[in-house]
Amino acid sequence: MINVVKIGGNVIDDPQALDAFLMDFVALEGPKILVHGGGKEASRLSKEMGLTPTMIEGRRVTDAHTLGIVTMVYAGLINKRIVAKLQALGCDAVGLTGADGNLIPATRRPAKPVDYGFVGDINPALVNTEFIASLLDRGRVPVCCAICHDTQGTLLNCNADSVAGAVAIGASPIAPVRLTYCFEKPGVMTDVDDERSVIPLVTAASFRQLKEDGIVASGMIPKLQNALLSAEAGVEEVRICRASDLRDDGGTIIRME
C-alpha cells in the first residue's frame, strides 16, 4: 500500500503541529508520498508586498507577480523546510515541483469564464508514474508542492488538493493507494464550529447536495472534488481528517456511491 498524504491549512503555519504531523507521517509503514499546500503563507507574503490575494471557489487567481510569490513560498520556503525536517527524522525525502522529472505536466486554464491567470489543470493520466516508481523503489519519499509546468517552459500554480489526487492516481499502477487529506479540522463538517458534526461518508450525490445547501464551500469544494475523482479513478481509499488523526480512524471517507 502506498500512502499519499496531503497537508495544508493551519498545520503548515503551526511549527508544533507540523512537527507532530511529520513524526506521524514518518511512522507510516511502506512507501509514502507527501503533498503540501501553503496558501496561507503565500497570502500573508502577498499582502506584505502590497498585493491583495483573490480567491474564487477556493482557487487562487495567479497573475505574474503572484506566480513568483507562490513559487518562492511553495517550491522554496515550505518545501525545503518540510524536506529538512523529514531528513532530521531519518526520512530520505526529496522535494519536487511538477516540473522536476516531468512529474506533473499541466495545462493553463482557459481564460473564460474566469481568467485565473497562470493556473494549471492536471490530467492525472499524464503524471509520471515511472518517475514516482523510481523514487519509491530507492526508498525515497517524494515531497511535492503545487507548482507544475506546461512542458513549454512556463510554471503554473495548481491546486494542492488536485496535485494530491493526481499523484495518487498516478501511483495507482504501482500498488494500491490510500489517499489522505489532512488539515486542521476532524473531517467534513455540517457545522464548522461543531467538531461533533463530522460527516462520516460523502458520495458524489451527497456532495452535490452539500454544495447546493452551502454546507461545503470555499477550499472544501476542490478538496472533495479531487477526492471523488480519485475514488472514481481507482484509488483504493480516500479520507479527509485532522492532521493529528493521520494514524487513527475517523474523519470522512469519500466514495463514489
What does this structure look like?
This protein is α/β, with parallel strands linked by helices and about 260 residues long. About 35% of the residues lie in helices and about 20% in strands. The strands form four sheets. The protein has an eight-stranded mixed beta sheet, sandwiched between helices. Strands 3-4 form a two-stranded antiparallel sheet. A hairpin with a 2-residue loop joins strand 3 and strand 4. Helix 6 runs parallel beside helix 8. The two termini are about 25 Å apart. The model has no long low-confidence stretch (mean pLDDT about 90).
CATH class: Alpha Beta
Looking at the overall shape, the CATH architecture is 3-Layer(aba) Sandwich
SSE pattern:
EHHEHEEHEEEHEEEHEEHHEE
Alpha plus pi helix count? 8
Oligomer: single chain
Structure summary:
The chain is α/β, with parallel strands linked by helices and 257 residues long.
Keywords:
8 helices, Carbamate kinase, 257 residues, two-stranded antiparallel ribbon, eight-stranded mixed sheet, alpha/beta
Secondary structure layout:
Blueprint (H helix, E strand, L loop, with lengths): L1 E6 L2 H4 L1 H13 L4 E5 L2 H10 L6 E2 L2 E2 L3 H25 L4 E4 L10 E2 L11 E2 L7 H9 L3 E4 L2 E3 L5 E3 L2 H12 L5 E7 L17 E2 L1 H9 L7 H13 L4 E6 L9 E3 L3
Parallel strand pairs: 1-2, 1-11, 2-8, 5-8, 11-13, 12-14
Antiparallel strand pairs: 3-4, 6-7, 9-10, 13-14
Helix pairs in contact: 3-4, 6-8
